[in-house]
Amino acid sequence: MSTLPEPKVTIIVVNWNKRADVINLLDSLQGIAYKNYSIVVVDNASTDDSVPAIKAHPLSVTLLENAENLGGTGGFNTGMRYALNVLQQDYLWLLDNDAEVTPYTLTELVRAMEADGTIGAAGSCIMSPEDKSLMVEAGGFVHWRSGTWAPNLRYARLNDQDDSRIIDVDYVAACSALVRATTAREVGVMDDRYFLHWDDIEFCLRMKRQGLRVVAVVASKVYHGVEKGCNPGIIYYDFRNGLLTASKHTSGIGRLIAYLGVLNNAFSSMVYVNLLGHRAWSRLIRSSVEDFLLGRFGKGRLSAGLTVAESQPVAEQELATRLSRVLVYASGTFDEVVQTVTKVREVAPGAHITLGVNRERAPIFDFLNVSHLCFDILKDPLSSKIRTAIKVLCGGYGVTITAGEGLSAPYAFLLTKHYTYAPVKERFFASDQNLWAIWKVALSLVLGPISAVAALPSVWNAGTRHAGSGGLSGAAEPVRDSAVG
């Protein structure tokens, strides 16, 4: 590549109220080895001082200011439409504003795509910023049967991988994705109806439908965390947009299976949180399905301040007597889990700790030197869930503790004593989610599938209406653009 002219790349970054992150990204872009590029930053009506900070940055940037927050989907579409209509380029590099690039992140993506004209999009290997030898994902695959997706090589060790690998996948995340400009013109930009979540997946699935490859490039590395905790927005968009994606990319028995996968997860979760007394969370999940049925897309109707009700605090001295053998559920963020395990060790230094953790997430906690009980609530078949329940019941645990203030895992109901730990408050709280309330889990597992089957005809009819191109060609709201730097 060094002896030939470098193809022109337009870098597109979307920002909303993340001044420090977007400035850090621009700083890291100053150090890339690739030189034939221009930068378009789309600001989604930030209310912090992101815009003046971007304008003051020494890099030459075209700044587009949306009149409202259009989400990641609308933001990237604003940038792509501007680039395709106004600029000349060979590639579009979609980049998250809180990512950190290396000098050769872009070089390796371009190298892979220049070597094979059938590649429509190439994504970087996303690495953990906390442990830079740990892979977050290298693209991923859609699992229609479970109504969700699975990141590829999630939490694998980089030194176990061949750095030259180029891996065919179903999708690559817009965290760092290089898209051929001709491909974007051929398949269209992202579907504006998504707002965020599933949008980059659906974008890539359209490329594959056109016979193009979507690949992850292990040699191209970008640092970006994924630990977001219990986020109501993610839950809402997961279910609503999962149904929309299934409508657009499945048919026949495949669509039936995909719908049931999403609906079973949605309704089981809705019944579960409702029985726990979290009515707002239950309404949120219900609205995700309702909005799909009614064709209400774009920015969701999310209520602010969705939290889990606080219980009675527990004195550490009282708790210490029960902590000889404890099961900690890793339901919170990375920091919340680490702080919870640290606190348990402080309160009961001799305690044997087992971490109940999502299977693909377990490797990031290896450094804690605790036992792992791994599971996947959404993807495990019933037989695996039963085996996990037996392990909890027969593990000799005195108590279970949920890390963080999010929703507890259903397995928390299997013991008579259950607590939560809130690192921000540095307090343990008693929980009524214990063995005496296990009927709530059982009922949700029964009513969830029944509700999914009952809703299937309505969802099928709605999906038939929504399966078209939808928001692919609609223009974004007018933007103000300015060349800065």
Automatic annotation (TrEMBL):
It holds the Pfam family Glycos_transf_2. Keywords: Glycosyltransferase, Membrane, Transferase, Transmembrane, Transmembrane helix. GO terms for molecular function: glycosyltransferase activity. The keyword Transferase applies. This is Glycosyltransferase 2-like domain-containing protein. CDD domains: GT_2_like_c. Belongs to the glycosyltransferase 2 family. Residues 10-149 form the Glycosyltransferase 2-like domain. The keyword Methyltransferase does not apply. Gene3D superfamilies: Spore Coat Polysaccharide Biosynthesis Protein SpsA, Chain A. The chain crosses the membrane at residues 256-277, 435-456.
